[in-house]
Design goal:
The protein is an alpha/beta fold. The chain has helices at residues 3-8, 20-23, 53-63, 85-98, 109-119, 135-144, 161-174, 195-206, 223-226, 229-232, 261-274, 280-291, 293-312, 331-339, 354-363, 394-399, 416-428; strands at 12-13, 16-17, 102-106, 126-131, 151-156, 177-183, 214-218, 237-241, 255-259, 317-321, 346-351, 369-370, 380-382, 406-410. It starts with a helix and ends with a helix. The structure holds pyridoxal-5'-phosphate. The site of pyridoxal-5'-phosphate has 13 residues, from α5.
Length: 430
Amino acid sequence: MSSSEKSYHKRSIGNHPLRPESLVMGYGFDPHLSEGAIKPPVFQTSTFVFKSAEHGAAYFRKSRGQELSDDMKDPGLAYTRINNPNLEILENRLTLFDGGEDALAFSSGMGAITTALLAFAERDQVYVYSSPLYGPTEMFLKDFLPKFGVKSISFPADAPKEVVEETFARARKMGEISVVYVETPANPTNAIVDLDLCMELAGKTAKSQSIRPVVMSDNTMQGPIGQTPLITSGIDLVLYSVTKYIGGHSDLIAGAAIGSAKVISRIRSLRTVFGTVPSPDTCWLILRSLETLKLRVNEAAKNARICAEFLQNHPKISQVRYLGFLEEGSSKKEIFDRTCLSAGSTFSFDVKGGQEAAFRMLNSLKLIKLAVSLGGTESLMCHPGSTTHSGVPAAMRQAQGYTDGLIRFSVGIENANDLLVDLEQALDAV
Ligand SMILES: Cc1ncc(COP(=O)(O)O)c(C=O)c1O
């Protein structure tokens, strides 16, 4: 490794550790390898020219985990489905906010989730998961994996401790538990799962079987500014739809997996097989987005509180499921205080009068856009019951606490007063 390579991987000035929001501007990139460009160019190439046939052979030896001689330690790059400078810089920077040892970027959030879940799949082993999950993830765990002999069992995201313990006990009777998969806060209900409890139960389970379950959490809804489960709870892997807060501008589709080097290495080899990598230009856009992640997320969270308080006091709204309103002294508030750093900026609320009233509100919006997705700079609203969650049976939706008037609100970084004016006039139309 050259001295300049070492300098662009430095994480401190003397004894002073640099914060992720400072490192994210330059970490992992040496401008002098690219004509002094302050931003990495887009390496729009499918393949890379080896310095020599020996370097090509060394590259493949390294990829099989073999030791290389000193003069071959850095054999270069080979092929963009495996690595690319934009991908490598992005993966270096993705580790920063979450405190991961290593990271992988993917072509979508679902690419990250399915590749990570399949990397640990073994016939007759059991996956324990919290429900509700993002629809396609739940379908993958509940319907798809069991077709190939991987068993799965769920517990409700807002279940009390005893129910989660009982689910683990039932799962253990079905076979060895290999994966615990959680999404918290859940979409769209904002139900919170206790990650510390999942870790404790995974640890206890490990004593009665040959493997320790890998604990994974989809951290899309909070993002790494609002919740850092690798640091706070010591879980093995966080997964993201980078499309949401990390991408943050509603202009790309991508995913990420961040965690321990061991877990990431197992997923990496399967990503190469599936080809679920993002393109170089998508990586470049995410690098741009990471620089403003903290600013955007904190500003949106401020706006979300203002909007949530307005809705909470509005006579046409029956309930606002905002994490900042969790009841003092409740178990959910205790879990929130222990595991979350922010109340975030996506929440749902129930319009009195069911779907008809909710549709009237949505059709009257002037500034807030009517669209699925979340975590962008602009505010979005949607009606999950007829769109993103329309595949969830009505009885299950009711059990999970949705009403027909439930609207999901992803609050952006517009002027807060303008948002309130839009909410007020849209609710006047209900
Ligand atoms: C919580 C959550 N996880 C995963 C996904 C899937 O991400 P993508 O659309 O980037 O594949 C989504 C998408 O909405 C999501 O909301």
